[in-house]
Amino acid sequence: MVNCEDNFYSPTDGKLDYTGVVYKIAEFIKSGNDFVHQVVVGTDSKPSNSDKGVDFITAVVVHRVNKGGIYFWRRVNKTKNFALTERIGEETVLSLELATKLRDTFRHNGLSAYEPEIHADVGENGATRDMIKWVTGMIIGSGFKAKIKPDSYGASTIADKHT
């Protein structure tokens, strides 16, 4: 579960808590009021190098369409070893938790127009192709838009950069 004390990191602003992330998102969107913005949440994972479970990286991306963007990420280590299906399921749950918290926060901060979409680290090619319906069903069933590879840059590019 995401709480206000969770540590997030930004390439621009360094270490922030959840409240700081929301503040920076609001500031960024308001500074470019004339532009279209998309808020994206995506998670990627990698077994830990030290054999201590799996590192999950969840990224929040605010894309100012055709004008760049900003992002924040956090790391959660789960000491259990996961099979691929379990890892993809956990990635999806972590993305859903953060997207739900952002959506609820945005509704109280004048940002309700910026509904997060979730980028899943699954695609038509490779070992995750049989999981697409399951993962997108979880996301859509929770009230969010779902993107998969090659369009899921929040998970497959931004979060992946920090795994």
What does this structure look like?
- The protein has 163 residues and is α/β, with parallel strands linked by helices.
- The protein has a single domain, classed as Nucleotidyltransferase, domain 5.
- It has four helices and seven strands.
- Strand 6, helix 3 and strand 7 form a beta-alpha-beta unit.
- The protein is globular.
- The chain starts with 7 loop residues before the first strand and ends with a helix.
- It comes from Candidatus Woykebacteria bacterium RIFCSPHIGHO2_02_FULL_43_16b.
- This is DUF458 domain-containing protein.
- It holds the Pfam family RNaseH_like.
Topology, element by element:
Elements: E1 8-10, E2 14-16, H1 18-31, E3 37-47, E4 54-64, E5 69-78, H2 84-108, E6 117-123, H3 132-141, E7 145-149, H4 153-161
Parallel strand pairs: 3-6, 6-7
Antiparallel strand pairs: 1-2, 3-4, 4-5
Spell out the helices and strands N to C: EEHEEEHEHEH
Mean pLDDT figure: 95
**Largest sheet at a glance?**
5 strands, mixed
Write down the overall geometry: globular
What is the fold named in CATH at topology level? Nucleotidyltransferase, domain 5
Strand order in the largest sheet: 5-4-3-6-7
Compute the number of strand runs: 7
CATH class: Alpha Beta
* Percent range of helical residues: 25-40%
Q: Structural class of the helices, strands and pairings?
A: alpha/beta
| Overall tally of structural domains | 1
Question: End-to-end span in angstroms?
Answer: 20 Å
What is the alpha-carbon Rg in Å? 15 Å
Low-pLDDT residue spans: none
Tally of DSSP helical segments: 4
